[in-house]
Amino acid sequence: MPTTSEAGSRLSTLPFTDPQLEPGWRHVVVPAADPRPLAAAPRMLEVSVAGAGRLHTWSQWHEATWGTSLLVLDGGRVVHETYSDRGGAEGLGPDTRFLGASMTKSVLAHLVGRAATDGELGLDDPVVRHVPELAGTGYDGPTVRHVLTMTTGVDWVEDHRDPDSLASRLLGCFPDGDSRALLRTVRPGVAPGTRWAYNTADSQVLDWVRERATGRDYADDVARLWRDLGCASEAVVGIDAAGTALAGGGLAATARDWARIALLAVDGTTDDGTRLLDPAWVEAAARSSYAITGVGRLPSSITTHAGFGHHWWPLDDAGTRLTADGSRGQFAAADRHTGAVVVKTSLWPYDDFLVDRQARDLSYLGLHALLDLFVPH
């Protein structure tokens, strides 16, 4: 979740581990039913990142942004893989499941894209057509497209510093509450489609709609995706007491499996050429749907280096580069022209919002610098 106000949330304290290792977490295991490990072809990478008033080598950049892992793919092969202890994290490696935080939202986007591709869900469907329990709430009026692009206009502020905010209360439903009961309290704000605001409630509602349309809960649909992508390791998903997944922030997976999530965003196909996502969906997901969500048009407290598409973050207006983005520096970025992928997990502090902002800005610059190294295959 790329907002500086997430400091103090229970999820943002655990970006390098997974729910089953933490007392009190409820979780569901996502099996690796058809593992196809990524091939490796390591080579030296020479890169310079200009940012924060200096030039950084890739290792200096990784250090300056509190990196815990850095994985680079070229041609679907691992050409670089590094794990680093940061902020109390120890023993990290290829088997570590990194909590993706809001990178989880981009996995949700893939699930919604499959449902749309398969004709199970229409983007112009009203939310309440699928979830009538939300009639009379702020979600009575917005469409699937609005929740997908975070333009519902509902009365919501993603502020986790205020323990009484709806955002804090939503995360507080994990593991012992009922998150969907809280969603039924969200009120209208402004007209749908007229304002963008970062909103994890929109993600949770989007998943509720997807579940009703497909008949599959989040963990089951991720398991289907995991099998089809050939993900090589189990993942875990945090759930509340009612069994609802934190589809907006609760998935933990290895760096290599996060890379497969980014690879699917390149052209919507798996490594064996099976098409999972319609080409039109892949193109739309990588672009901003509104002028207000274009690259550089989001609130500067979020980022000036990206826009917002279909629960992915476009890095250019042409839809060539995009990334998943999670709090405290979790990224899975892809260049759709070259097929290169960069996964970066991090553990930077939130105490000083300026440190958070600089680390995020520097991370985006470094993602571009690394992706610039590669040419189309």
UniProtKB/TrEMBL annotation:
Alphabetized InterPro entries for the sequence: Beta-lactam-related (IPR001466), Beta-lactam/transpept-like (IPR012338), Diverse_Enzym_Activities (IPR050789)
Annotated Beta-lactamase-related domain residues: 67-358
Signal peptide boundaries: none
Gene3D superfamilies on file: DD-peptidase/beta-lactamase superfamily
Protein's name in the database: Beta-lactamase-related domain-containing protein
Organism in which the protein naturally occurs: Nocardioides exalbidus
